[in-house]
Amino acid sequence: AQPRAEMADSDALAQNAELLESVLSDFGVMGEITQVRPGPVVTLYELEPAPGVKTSRVINLADDIARSMAAVACRVAVVSGRNAIGVELPNQHRETVYLRALL
To answer: Locate the FtsK alpha domain: which residues (predicted)?
Structure first.
């Protein structure tokens, strides 16, 4: 069984993914969030756009996405090797990463 904090985090990530899909559809961008990759500082949401959606249009919406998601910033870029657009949003709470954990 997962610890309670991890379950709450996965629920929050799922809610954020749904909210992001809703925000994108408000701007006329159809697609589906296929994968969520949480990190210590930002979370990467992989958007698989509907056929005909231009990547440049989604990239140009980065500031509007950040505002609508109540986030400080938003980075949007193509995920190389896949039919996906990555949307990076900052986490509510940053985790401290210690150098020892990296070595």
So the answer is: 5-91
